[in-house]
Design goal:
The protein has nine helices and twelve strands. By secondary structure, it is of the alpha+beta class. It has three domains: 157 residues, Beta-Lactamase; 87 residues, Helix Hairpins; 149 residues, 2-Layer Sandwich (Heat Shock Protein 90), CATH 3.30.565.10. The strands form three sheets. Strands 2-1-5-4-3 form a five-stranded antiparallel beta sheet, with helices on one face. A five-stranded mixed beta sheet has the order 7-9-10-12-11, covered by helices on one side. Strand 1 and strand 2 form a beta hairpin. Helix 1 packs antiparallel against helix 2, helix 1 runs antiparallel to helix 4 and helix 7 packs parallel to helix 8. The longest helix has 54 residues. The chain is rod-shaped, with a radius of gyration of 49 Å.
Length: 467
């Protein structure tokens, strides 16, 4: 289904309203023109009829009783008078004079003889006005029944059709032009109307957890959109206050926990070194020490993420060889998987001089390598480092347990752990930290995985991180 922008919808709505109003006005104008012309024609027909009645009753009353020669002369004279009164172009007039033998029909005009050839019996018509189509032309007829006969007088709707033809020619040129102007004008006006919305949307996209101090641009209008902008800014104020409290709590809690955990870890290490401990005591101390180390790591991760949220982390950029750092990580990984049947491979490794925070990049690579080692029991872990004209590409692929497809969209969320494949007792913060480190260096990180087939992590950094 095609999705249209609001600007396009507004433009189409304006065009639709214009077209609807235009055609309604056109229909109203045509109806008004038709009624006006018909009224004008009716008045002219009645005026001509009255003249003919007066003419006949004053000069031709003797026509029915006249002899042949005299009758022919009267008919010729009457025909000439009828032609002069109402026998011009687009007009027609007929007198049906009652006689003892058969009616005498005298007619003049454009449709002479055609009326009666088509079987029109106006003697049977009631007095009134009628529309008739003869010879593919529309006529307005006025029939008047009188004691001495019937008067039939008509006029073609020629003016109406001439105006309609001219109007059609105007529409063929004018309608597409005006419609194009309406579309262009509507699109322009809709763009101006939606400009504050676009600016607000752009500003809203820039507001993140790390820059909640940003606000939507002010809107001077007092309409509903202005109220919406004001309401959203108030909402961002409240969110900023609430998130700052949460961030402050996280930092304070991490700071408060770090010191006693450090002391606990030290005391456990001292106790573990006591040679007089029994085997059972040593096992308990070992488990407690492992828990203390794990909790210390979680606290350090929380402090790091809290600093990243507030933007207070002190980035220490330096220039270093990322390929050398990757090889050091692989050496450490070989020690971690020493007892597992896993092959560590580095088929391709370009020399890359990188500019960034060395400690964070090292943590990124170690977290990913350690994560691959924890969830790969056999097979391989493969690293690759490529440098192109635009990007630095790092790929880490393993043949481990894999991740279900439903979990992949959430894998970089904080405290999110895969229920089955990758729970492993972790805190769920490692991949969140990896994502933050990559984004801090303007890069991207993606993960593809299939259960029981392995996982591939792909990291790219822009070329401007090269020294």
């Amino acid at each position: 289904m095609m999705h249209l922008s609001i600007r396009t919808k507004l433009t189409l709505t304006i065009a639709l309203v214009y077209a609807s109003v235009f055609f309604l006005l056109l229909l109203a104008g045509a109806a008004s023109l038709y009624i006006g012309l018909q009224d004008q024609m009716d008045s002219q027909l009645k005026e001509s009829r009255n003249i003919i009645i007066e003419l006949y009753e004053t000069e031709y009353q003797s026509l029915p009783a006249a002899n042949s020669d005299e009758g022919d002369q009267l008919v010729n004279d009457l025909r000439g008078d009828l032609k002069e009164i109402h026998g011009h172009e687009y007009q027609y007039v007929a007198l049906i004079v009652n006689k003892e033998s058969e009616p005498l029909i005298i007619e003049e005009g454009r449709i002479e003889n055609s009326v009666f050839r088509q079987g029109e019996n106006f003697q049977l018509q009631k007095t009134g006005l009628y529309n008739r189509r003869l010879q593919n032309r529309l006529y307005r007829f006025l029939v008047t029944a009188l004691p001495w006969g019937t008067i039939v007088i008509a006029e073609e709707y020629h003016l109406l059709f001439e105006i309609a033809e001219e109007f059609r020619e105007i529409l063929l040129v004018g309608l597409p032009l005006t419609l194009a102007l309406v579309l262009f004008g509507g699109y322009f006006l809709a763009g101006r109307a939606m400009r504050p919305v676009a600016r607000t949307a752009e500003a809203a996209e820039k507001i993140t957890m790390t820059n909640l101090s940003e606000r939507l641009p002010g809107y001077r209008g007092k309409d509903e959109f202005g109220q919406l902008v004001t309401t959203l800014n108030y909402m961002i104020d409240r969110l900023e206050g609430g998130i700052k409290k949460v961030q402050q709590f996280s930092q304070d809690a991490a700071h408060e926990l770090r010191t006693p955990l450090t002391i606990m870890r030290g005391e456990l290490e001292l106790a573990y070194q006591n040679q007089d401990n029994s085997d059972e005591t040593q096992a308990v101390l070992q488990r407690s020490l492992d828990h203390a180390i794990s909790m210390s790591k979680i606290v350090e991760d929380l402090m790091l993420l809290a600093s990243s949220d507030t933007g207070d982390y002190p980035i220490q950029k330096s220039t270093f060889r990322i390929d050398s750092l990757l090889k050091d990580i692989i050496d450490d990984l070989n020690v971690l998987v020493n007892e597992k049947p896993i092959e560590i491979k580095l088929p391709h490794c370009d020399e890359v001089t990188f500019k960034g925070d060395r400690q964070l990049i090292q943590r990124l690579l170690f977290n990913l390598a350690d994560n691959a080692a924890k969830h790969t029991e056999h097979g391989f872990i493969e690293f690759q480092l490529h440098k192109s004209e635009r990007l630095i590409d790092i790929t880490i692929e393993d043949s481990g347990e894999g991740i279900p497809e439903s979990d992949l969209p959430h894998i970089f969320d904080r405290f999110y752990r895969v229920d089955k494949a990758r729970a492993g007792g972790g805190s769920g913060l490692g991949l969140s930290i990896c994502k933050w480190i990559v984004e801090l260096h303007h890069g991207t990180i993606t993960m593809q995985s299939q259960p029981e087939e392995g996982t591939t992590v792909h990291i790219t950094f822009p070329v401007h991180n090269l020294s």
